[in-house]
Amino acid sequence: MSAEATNPGAQISRRRGLPRIDLRRIGRAALLGPTSRGRLPDAMGHVADAHRAHHPDADLGVLHKAYVLAEASHRGQFRKSGEPYITHPLAVTLILAELGAETTTLTASLLHDTVEDTEVTLDQVRAEFGDEVCYLVDGVTKLEKVDYGAAAEPETFRKMLVATGNDVRVMSIKLADRLHNMRTLGVMRPEKQARIAKVTRDVLIPLAERLGVQALKTELEDLVFAILHPEEYAHTRALIADNATAGDALAAISEDVRGVLREAGIAAEVLVRPRHFVSVHRSGLKRGELRDTDFGRLLVLVGEDADCYAVLGELHTCFTPVISEFKDFIAAPKFNLYQSLHTAVAGPDGAVAEVLIRTHQMHKVAEAGVVALGNPYASVESGGTQDGTGSSAGTTAPAGGAPESAGDPQDGERADPTRPGWLSRLLEWQQAAPDPDTFWTTLRADLAQDREITVFRAEGGMLGLPAGATCVDAAYAQYGEAAHGCLGARVNGRLATLSTVLSDGDTVQLLLDKDAVSGPSPEWLSHARTAAARIAITGWLAAHPETVGLPAATPRAALAVSAGRRDVANAVVDLPGATVRLAGCCTPVPPDAVTGFAVRGGVVTVHREECRAVERMRALDRAPVAVSWGDAPECRVTLYAESFGRPRLLADLTEAIATAGAAIVAATVEPPSEQRVRHTYTLELPDAAGLPGLMRAMRDVPGVYDVSRAQHPATA
Description:
The protein is an alpha+beta fold. The radius of gyration is 34 Å and the shape is elongated.
């Protein structure tokens, strides 16, 4: 397969009217073209123009210096395609420059292969370009030592992840490096093309998605699509060619949109964005027969956030909205920093167009992701800009990150304020992965999660989790290994099992036993969706093999304990000679407001006033009997303890009851239902005043989430 055949991105560029860069010509100019002293080499002209377009005040002197070193060190080296090797770092740097990368990243990009393939050393790079450039070059150099054999991949990509986490610019360079290699992959054997394409598909494309670098991600997808699915790619390419005029339908709608926004006084730029090959292919699978408007989208760019919603209102007023297509990623940004409003509207002729609405800054971040955030370690106090001497991004906390002051690396770790929250989580669990194979398996599974949800913590804050995550995943995302003591959860205020699947926008309160003597159950593994949860649970179970298969993990038969009943009725009724009995449905105790009703056998049953049995008696016109409490302090009460099942729970509860000075008259433990257990205790207290303290002591037992008085017919 030729490089042209594996480069659908080039077709897209020409279709959009962008100039095609002749890298072979640039390479020859780099080796043969004259360069005047103090002037940037001719081969760097494209890079300089692209860089100045994003950073007009950037100092190109350091790029000149880096280019001279790279050109001299790579002189005489050639790529397998026959091009001078300098064309590769030039192409990688051009890709990053077009994305808006700052000068430090571009400098490191020009030098990213020098330490690996030439006599240049890291000490030389540090001496001439500083610690930042040296750090980036070193990080990329480590990633270049990739053996695509099956045994080498896991450990290599573990190192890649660590390097990425310490500075996301390392991965930015790596992604641009892979993009250029994929563009020129046609000179390699088909089996090697397929092997590299699969690694790109499984790891690098998902990482590009999560870093928000959509411009790289979409072209990588098309290149991989062409190699791994040549027939589908050829069909899609022919489909796009056969519908070359499909953009006319979107162009007509875009004119209508411009007119609507012009009349509303909203300054906006309306563009037609053709879909890339993979997007068209997916739309075909989803819709079947494609419409003219399915080959592209409308992009509306405005100045301020409020303008986005103003545009949305005008579109939904003047066109027919497709409500199911509306998504608000401005109020709730995606995990990869992406912000935009998505909607779809139907024109008068019924043609439906998808519309993306965002500000110019949102668009920059949507295309370039973390690359658009500049140098995260530049000091704001220095007053620099994003040209590498300083960066406003250093004080901006994007979605999933937190602002931290830039500082010198300590023990190889760097506090990166642009690091997405998902990347921080990956860095945490990769350290706990027991071996490279486990890491590789869990990494691919985690990256395969292409959609993330946001859940809210009851105590404040948010958690980003992959779609399909459960309460188990939320527990480990929030508490780490402390989640081993998680007893249950409340989802949107209601008790829920740990296996409950969470939805976007749910509020989660995790019930944690900080002093738990037990740990996670093996069945938690079947509920865990995130790598962090699975690795933590597996590690705990491996370290505590004696806990696996405990009887507490299986349903138990109802357990009844009786300590010999005796009548205790510290109540006086206004009915001489009657026997007094305290109702088992509500077990009244002093100083409860009570009333009585005469039943057969000369017995008066005493109920609490709020007992449902009292309502039923009055509905039957049964005459109440006046009741008052006597002087004896002792009383009997029935309590329900709701808990999550765990080993030694019954022993801990009975110990708490005994410590409070109460005697157990009867107890029933029902079989577990969805990890929840109900205990029913009939207790005899020496003094009714001790009841509130007893109930608090029972609630403090790990695993118990509620203790209440009996409110319906007792089972004891």
